[in-house]
Design goal:
This protein is mostly beta strands. The strands form two sheets. Strands 1, 2, 5, 8 and 9 form a five-stranded mixed sheet that branches. A four-stranded antiparallel sheet has the order 4-3-6-7. The longest helix has 7 residues. The protein is globular, with a radius of gyration of 14 Å. The two termini are about 15 Å apart. The mean pLDDT is about 95.
């Protein structure tokens, strides 16, 4: 069975981004998005359980929406209004029914990067 996981690293502090809110959405055939879950990162910048795994795992097109500005404001970082980076949407596809898809985010209020991790 496949699984989807994520974690977030705060590149301003050089630590895991604990307490970041993440929305998980699934693409629908009509081009819209359906909300699947809302999760928050733990002290290690990870979610307490996989975003999707086991019997619930299915291939398709998905989106993780990382609430970056909200997180940095909570850390006391002064941001412009509107912030340069607010919500980071990562659109990705999962084609392997037994694959492990790991979508990490490295972020600051001014930049972000991601990759398919392991």
């Amino acid at each position: 069975m496949g699984r989807l996981s994520t974690h977030v690293l705060d590149t301003v502090s050089g630590r895991p981004a604990a307490g970041m809110r993440i929305e998980f959405l699934e693409a629908k055939a009509d081009g819209g998005w359906e909300h699947q879950a809302e999760i928050t990162t733990n002290a290690d910048g990870r979610t307490d359980k996989p975003v999707m795994a086991g019997e619930d795992f299915r291939t398709g097109r998905y989106q993780l929406r990382f609430h970056v500005a909200e997180y940095f404001r909570a850390q006391g970082v002064a941001l412009a209004d509107p912030p340069f980076i607010d919500i980071v949407p990562i659109h990705f596809g999962m084609a392997e029914a037994d694959g492990h898809y790991h979508v990490p985010l490295l972020c600051s209020p001014w930049t972000y990067s991601t990759y398919r991790g392991s």
